[in-house]
Each structure stands twice: as structure tokens, then as C-alpha cells.
TrEMBL record:
InterPro entries: ArsA/GET3_ATPase-like, ATPase_ArsA/GET3, P-loop_NTPase. This is ATPase. Residues 15-170 form the ArsA/GET3 Anion-transporting ATPase-like domain. GO terms for molecular function: ATP binding; ATP hydrolysis activity.
Length: 322
């Protein structure tokens, strides 16, 4: 993998990854964090939905509210990961802005934090995105703590509300630290150092949700990045209809049964495959019409584990086709 191709293709410092549920957005986020860590860099991978979807991909225990190393690259690169919990984030917030250390922990024990985030749902998203902002802008000895932060964000159906923290916070307060924090997060999310990528499959519902999400984010003034088409498959059939004679010759050459029933079943499978490929071609054209850079990732056999993530990372780091 050529390291010098990673930054031009993924120049943002905060990479937000969303997509319809089931499209593999968590897998893509993990692979992107690996790709961006190439060349001895350090990246942070953040999840905010409480699903613990990242830990199994890297073969590590469930992630705490603490930045932990989940992968090291041979060239010195490192991926750290963090599961942001709204309650822990609120405790940290109370400690930082109101000096409520022990008192804040006591509030947690009596359930006041759950109560606060229930009656003010926007507060939860402010806390979650606020922690992401802190990690993205953190400096250590005058240098950025992380080359890039990758956020495994909520799905497309909720991404606009999640990222539009200014509007959500306006319902809570117009002054004070919460307002200041949300304004800072909003400025980061709308700045050139942030890009929101949408993961999709070549299926009708994910493609439609991709178009809807891009339109919503653009309307909110949030910068969108790439459309990542996940689990793509090569066309394995030649052009034109497969005849029975061709199938019989192929089966015979492979020393397989070439009876009429087998040939008919294979012809039916081939036609189903062609119909599916025609639909995928049409859906790909719809995605191209959105005028966003398209990145395709292959469908990999078996479970997604760390070696599989490295394979996907290599695809993400490859230069854009010319």
C-alpha cells in the first residue's frame, strides 16, 4: 500500500462514517482508521451508539470510556478506539466546567443523568459529539494527538439530527457552557477539516437513504465526502445468454453432471444473476448522479476480522481511478 495516497484521498481530520443499518458502516469506519494510520500515524476510532460493534472486529474486549490501542501496524502506525458513553461524558463535562467531581458521580448513582438526557435528548448528542471534538482538536506538546479521528456515527435515518447539535441545543439553553460547547462542535462539523461519508450497498433502500442523507446534510451546511459502495461483486458471466450447449460443455469439462435438470437450473441461476447485475448497474448510475466521489469495496468471504479489515483498508488507501 502506498502511504502517500492516503492523505490526498481522505484529507479531512474528522472522518464521519454513516449509512443505513446493515450496510457495514462500522466495518468501513474501522478499515478507514487502519488506512489512515499507515505511515506511522496514530488514529482514533470512536463509536457512540453503545453497540460495542468495534471490539469484535479487532478481536479485543468491549471498549471502555477510555482510549485503548486496538491495532498496531508494522510501520509504527497505531489505531486507538473509544466507546463514548453519554453518562460518562456528562460526568466528565460536569467535572470540567462545574468542578463537580464526587457530586457528579453521586448524580449518576441516583439516576439523575439518565433523567437529564431523557427529558433533553439533544443533550445526549451534544455530549457525544463534544467528546469527538475534544479528541479531534487535542494537542500534546504542541502537536495533534491524532492524525485523524474516525467516527462510527448513527445511521442515515438519524445522522442529520445527531450532527445538527446547534439546533438541538437551542431548545435547551441560549447561554452558558453547554451552548458554548455546542457552538464549538457545530463549527467543527461545518469546517473543511470534517467530512461525512455515506456507506451504501447496491440495493434500492440503501441507495435511496444515501441520496436522502446527502440532501439533508447539505441543507444543514455540513460537508459531505464520499459515497462508499460496500460489498460489491464482480460480474462472473460473459456477455450474452448462456446456451444449454455451452453449459453442458462446461460441466463436462469440469467432470460434473450435465443432465437436463442441472443445465436448466444453471440457466435459471444465470438469468437471476443477470437481472441482479442489471439492477446494480442502474443503482450505481443513480449514485454517480449524486456527484460525490464513489469508492467501491469488495465483498469478502467469511467473517470480518483484523486481516479482512487490512484488506479493506488497502482498497480505501488506493489512489482514485484515473
Amino acid at each position: 500500500m502506498r502511504v502517500d495516497t492516503v492523505e490526498p484521498r481522505w484529507p479531512a481530520r474528522l472522518q464521519v462514517v454513516t449509512g443505513k443499518g446493515g450496510t457495514g458502516k462500522t466495518t468501513v469506519a474501522a478499515a478507514l482508521a487502519l488506512a489512515l494510520a499507515a505511515g506511522g500515524r496514530r488514529t482514533l476510532l470512536v463509536e457512540v451508539e453503545g453497540r460495542q460493534g468495534l471490539a469484535p472486529l479487532f478481536g479485543v474486549p468491549p471498549l471502555p470510556y477510555e482510549e485503548r490501542t486496538v491495532a498496531r501496524l508494522p510501520d509504527g502506525g497505531e489505531v486507538r478506539a473509544l466507546a463514548v458513553d453519554a453518562e460518562e461524558a456528562l460526568l466528565e463535562y460536569l467535572s470540567m466546567f462545574y468542578k463537580l467531581g464526587a457530586a457528579g458521580r453521586a448524580l449518576g448513582k441516583i439516576g439523575a443523568i439518565d433523567f437529564a438526557t431523557t427529558i433533553a435528548p439533544g443533550l445526549r448528542d451534544v455530549l457525544l459529539t463534544g467528546k469527538v471534538k475534544e479528541a479531534t482538536t487535542r494537542a500534546v506538546d504542541g502537536h495533534r494527538a491524532y492524525h485523524a479521528v474516525v467516527l462510527d456515527a448513527p445511521p442515515t435515518g438519524r445522522i442529520g439530527r445527531f450532527l445538527n447539535v446547534t439546533a438541538e441545543t437551542a431548545r435547551l439553553t441560549r447561554v452558558g457552557p453547554i451552548k458554548s460547547q455546542s457552538d464549538g462542535v457545530a463549527a467543527l462539523l461545518r469546517s473543511p477539516i470534517t467530512a461525512v461519508h455515506v456507506v451504501t450497498l447496491l440495493e434500492e433502500m440503501p441507495v435511496q437513504e444515501t441520496a436522502d442523507a446527502l440532501a439533508e446534510l447539505t441543507g444543514l451546511g455540513i460537508r459531505t465526502g464520499k459515497v462508499i459502495v460496500n460489498r460489491t461483486r464482480p460480474d462472473i458471466l460473459p456477455d450474452g445468454r448462456l446456451t444449454g450447449a455451452e453449459l453442458r460443455r462446461g460441466l463436462a469439462a469440469a467432470d460434473l453432471p450435465a443432465d437436463r435438470a442441472t443445465v436448466a437450473a444453471l440457466q435459471a441461476e444465470a438469468e437471476t444473476h443477470r437481472a441482479r447485475r442489471a439492477l446494480e448497474t442502474a443503482l450505481h448510475a443513480e449514485l454517480a448522479a449524486l456527484h460525490r466521489p464513489l469508492v467501491s469495496l469488495p465483498q469478502l468471504p467469511g467473517e470480518i476480522d483484523l486481516p479482512a479489515l487490512h484488506t479493506l483498508a488497502a482498497h480505501l488507501a488506493a489512489p482514485d481511478p484515473t
